[in-house]
Amino acid sequence: MHTDVKFSVLGPVRLHRQGALEAVGQPRQCAVLASLLLRGGRPVSLSKLVDDVWGDEAPPSAEGSVRTYIYRLRQVLGKQSNSSVQSVDGGYLLPFQPDALDLTRFKETTARAREARSAGNLTLAADLLSEALKLWRGEALAGVPGPFASRQRSFLSQLHFACLEEQLSCEVERGRYAEAAAELSALHIEHPLRERVCGLLMTALYGAGRQSEALTVYHTTSHMLRQHLGVNPSPELQQVHERILSGRFQLPRRDTRPTTGHVSTPSQPLAQLPAALPRLVGREKEQEQIEQFATATESSPVGSVCLVNGVAGVGKTAFTTAVAHRLAERFPDGQLFADMYSEGSAGKPRDPAEVLADFLQALGVRSEALPAGTQARGLLFRDLLAKRRILLVLDNAWDTDELQHLLPVTPGSVVLIASRTQLHSLTTTCPTLSLTLLPLSQVNARHFLACRLGAERVAAEPEAIDRIIECAGRLPLALANVAARAAYRPQMPLTRLAAEYTASEHSALDALHSNEDVILNKRTSITSSYRRLDPEAAFLFRALSAWPGALFAASDAVNKARQPEQQKDQPPSGLIHAHLVSEVVPGRHNWDRLIATLSAEQPSTADAATSNTSLNT
Q1: 291 Cα distance to chain centroid
Q2: 415, 436, 457: which is the final residue of a domain?
Q3: Does position 36 have pLDDT exceeding 90, yes or no?
């Protein structure tokens, strides 16, 4: 597109040609233009444009109306091929130079300000942030209707507020206390629960010699936080208060960010996702739930979390990776990925400090500038993500303690977590969707094998396929290993393969074991879950090996293995938490065939305790 055409979305949607303002059209026409602009030059389908403008209230004539708006936009923009809306693959594309959009210029200017501040040049950083703020002409997308504009308006308002906070922070740090205090006072009245604004205002007032006012601001904010949110001020805000009271507050504040040469902005969006399977079988409903949740929480003031849990082998990693690829385009700053519990490192969970080091280096922090300790790295990680929309994928997570420093609070960011445990406590800290993946249905398990072995080969030996599916417990990882073996020997009858797996319970496990790829090792997966159990849950798991059948009552199963004087009811909550058993109805539980066989292989309580100790060192 010609560089003399520029667009504005940081305020009412506007078109400027050679410096002159031109009318865009009626509000819904502006909504179509905004949808094309904020997709960054990517194609937008006709149905998506209808959803953007009307949402669930689209009339039957909506598609025709969108075509009319596109026609009129072409008239406004001009009919030249390089300056009009293009039709592509059932949708539309508006090509434009990045600097033709005020939002792009805003983001580039704030990025330069972050670099200047990291280099210690607070004056340049403050000037650049002031320049970025001048691009705003009121509320973003003012007057533009539709659910898409509403979500984007909320997101953009957060960007504006963060830029304003950062600019005032620079003013405070460079010692311009009186000037900053005036602006911060007005901002604090408008946003009395924003603790960073409160801390900056207290610092500015103290620096301007107004200590009593600074303490009054703290007590007012503290009271409102308890009254409205039921929480105490953050440790950082409490520390500002304590330092003012004790007279130990040194001004100006020391800038703790990495200095020149220690941090750089990645030239491309982060793209750390592992390769995804071409398609998933039987998980369509769960995929749709996560996509709807991500859309619904785009305007959340904090990041949101999707928890995907289930028994080992049910396909959590493959599922979360596939969903992450489907969501990736929603996150312009990229995707981060970490395996929190690598089977390749003797079954030990990774140290969160190590994971944070990987993330920080991906974000441009040089190794010599990495802070020491998990907490310091976590603070820097959240700081660097403060103005980014990131999709974060954490695979094989075990407990909330290892996650607390890894969750960004950036509005619009999403964290996908795959775990064998249920991680209930995360649901209290941020918007959370929790999904439990179950083994595939019989129909989907057959389809799973047909996709890998061919429909004809599967249809030719239905009884063998059913025996294999039963032996594999309808678990995708086990089925994938079967399919890999069968595909490697295409002439081998599936009946013979099924006979190898069903000769005995333990031969089934050995047949499903893969020495070449530990990810397909069901025995290793279950054993690593077992080693994390407490002694009582570990005892119950082993005791269940003596119980006939897959359905059991926990008290009957455990008392069968205990001496009479030891007998007591033992609810299997630890086993449920680790997805080693599932509750069918209250008091009645079951487990799959492979897990039942594995329970008999586990070490004694003393050995289990030793294993648990080694995992925690």
Answers
A1: 12
A2: 436
A3: yes
- The mean pLDDT value for 4-27 works out to 87
Res 615 pLDDT > 70: no
Q: 606 CB contacts (<8 Å, ≥6 apart)?
A: none
**Is the pLDDT at 67 greater than 90, yes or no?**
yes
The arrangement of strands across the sheet holding 14-17 comes to: 5-8, 14-17, 20-22
Tens of pLDDT, residue by residue over 236-252, are: 899 889 888 877 666 65
Rounded distance between C-alpha atoms, residue 283 and residue 441, angstroms: 11
Residue 425, helix vs strand vs coil: helix
- Number of structural domains, the chain? 5
Single residue among 466, 492, 520 that ends a domain in this structure: 520
In a shared domain, residues 296 and 401: yes
E strands present in 311-420: 334-339, 391-397, 414-419
**Cα–Cα distance for residue pair 183/164, rounded to 1 Å:** 10
Helix (H, G, I), strand (E, B) or coil at 108: helix
pLDDT band at residue 555, thresholds of 50, 70 and 90? low
pLDDT score of 107: 92
Within this chain, do residues 84 and 49 fall inside the same structural domain, yes or no? Answer: yes
Cα–Cα distance list, 277 to 273, 286, 458, 514, 549 (Å): 12, 16, 20, 19, 35
Are 522 and 475 within 8 A, CB to CB? yes
- 188 with 220: CB under 8 angstroms? no
**Cβ 110 vs Cβ 129: under 8 Å:** yes
Query: First and final CA of the chain: distance in angstroms?
Result: 60
In a domain, 126, yes or no: yes
pLDDT greater than 60 at residue 511: no
Token pair, residue 369, equals 């500038």
Other Cβ atoms closer than 10 A to 548: 9
State mean pLDDT over 491-519: 59
Q: DSSP letter for 253, please.
A: P
Q: Is residue 70 part of a domain?
A: yes
Q: Distance between CA atoms of 358 and 383, rounded to whole angstroms? A: 15
Print the domain residue range for 470: 442-520
CB-CB contact of 26 with 117 (8 Å): no
Report DSSP letters for 537-600, one per residue. HHHHHHHGGGS-SSEE-HHHHHHHHS-GGG------HHHHHTTSSEEEETTEEE--HHHHHHHT
Please indicate, yes or no, whether residues 416 and 465 belong to a single structural domain of this protein: no
> At which residue do the structure tokens 């970025």 appear?
132
Q: Quote the percentage of the chain above a pLDDT of 70.
A: 72
Which residue pairs from 554-559 have beta carbons closer than 8 angstroms and sit at least 24 positions apart in sequence? 554/587, 554/589
